[in-house]
Amino acid sequence: MPDERVKLLAEFIEPLRVEPGSKVKLARDFDPGYKASFLKKKDGAAILQAGVAVLAEYQARLAAQDTWGVLVCLQALDAGGKDGTIRHVMSGVNPQGVRVSSFKVPSAEELDHDYLWRYAQRLPGRGEIGVFNRSHYEEVLVVRVHPELLDRQKLPAAARGKGMWARRYREINDWEHFLADNGFKVVKLFLNLSKEEQRIRFLRRLDLPEKNWKFSAADARERKYWDDYQAAFSDMLSHTSTEWAPWYVIPADHKWFARICVSSVLAYTLLDIDPRYPVVDAARQDDLAQTKELLEAEAPKGAAADPARAEIAADKQDGQESKRARKQRERMKKVRAELAKAAKSTA
Ligand code: AMP
Ligand code: MG
Fold first, then answer.
1. Per-residue pLDDT tens for 183-220?
2. Engineering a disulfide at 215: which of 72, 112, 205, 307 sits with its beta carbon 3.0 to 4.6 angstroms away?
3. Ligand 1 pocket by C-beta < 6 Å: which residues?
């Protein structure tokens, strides 16, 4: 990939990626409060904007090419920032090309099927980006921490007991491998929040009347299971980060930084797919030329045959787009230089 942005983004997100096959212990391996030392909050908005612009452009190409689909799985503990991340990171993309699905406690109908059924129904089509706000990973997280939820899944005895979580990891990995092989990229993001930051965010929800609706007493009760969740997340990351669908652990205590990270992973994914606008073949080009002639012949008296051509030329001269692109590239170059400096000083 000749694009300089791909290299830059790859470097930036590399420390967030869970190496397939590695054994993760969250508390030891990932700091929820991490923010790259060379990035300042005041630069955050500009960098996020750059990511949003890439997403907008590449989502349009993805849709036009209609070959690849992208599934983004967002996992976090309560108050981890999933909703806000989706709102900010996806703010530039065409709503027609994106579908967000939120997964709650399963319904009776859903419990009457295998545990992946409801997720399969919400998969993106080709050309689409599907965002799972919570995902099939709930089936090895909340269901593991609360065995009574497993009771409700009506499984045959042989499907439970020893080895069942290892089996679910394998089944999930196989499912994602199948999707990847068939043109659907699976991007998995875990927003990693600290216990103290969660406490503060809960208190904010209680202190601000307009945030009260977001608070549920059940969320606070779940804090009792904090250590169980950390263990379940660690085990999940250790077993389901694969070459075809790696996990990214996003430091989530600083929202502005988490959003930059998420948008970088998504921008990287799309740049890596590198979707292209379909090229029209020669026969179709002849067709288009003929249609153009017909339309030009219909010009009313005194009107230009093709006013659109003049507009396009004016747009090009205006150079708005390229000026923005140039500024973006310069910004990226600066970040890149800082990255190199930071890498040297830690080496
Ligand atoms: P929220 O995302 O805050 O609206 O909450 C959704 C709730 O649904 C959370 O408490 C999740 O733990 C719960 N949930 C999501 N998926 C499942 C599942 N597969 N089984 C049981 N509970 C789930
Ligand atoms: Mg909730």
1. 999 999 999 999 999 999 999 999 999 999 989 889 99
2. 205
3. 103-106, 134, 138-139, 142-143, 149
